Amino acid sequence: VISSREYGTRNKVPQEAVPAAMDAQVLAELTAAFEQATGLPPGAIRPVAHRTQMWGAAVPMNTYSGGECVLDAEAAAGIAGDWLIDPSIQGAALSGIAMAEAIVKHKDGHSADVGLDLNPDQSMETVVSPACGAFPGVPLGDSTARVPLPARGGRGRGGG
Known about the structure:
two-stranded antiparallel ribbon, 4 strands
């Protein structure tokens, strides 16, 4: 289960060591939100295993406007990720597919750069997707009530 940007921001903790109390809270809240979203009664889902990862950098605020993936044909190096299309599971999947297609073309002798023709200083666009994990065009509300976001200079090493 992937939360919204707002939920992740409100529940920010060190990503390397999620405190046990926060791990339990996130598991309970996201499980309840999934049950509600799928019409299941409360308590219907009883996870037997889980891993809580609170990635501070996992919800891009901008996306790259140069393409669905980036391939430097001469270096034979490429990049794929949700931040290239849309911060969502679908965005990540589509970027991975585009990267696979670019690799096949490169292997078949069509050695053209992909996504490198833009000025890097002018190649980012503001994200419009409401939630990481959302599918573009499908509105999703947050699973919990909105609360004010914390002031900058928070609890993590990133200062935010």
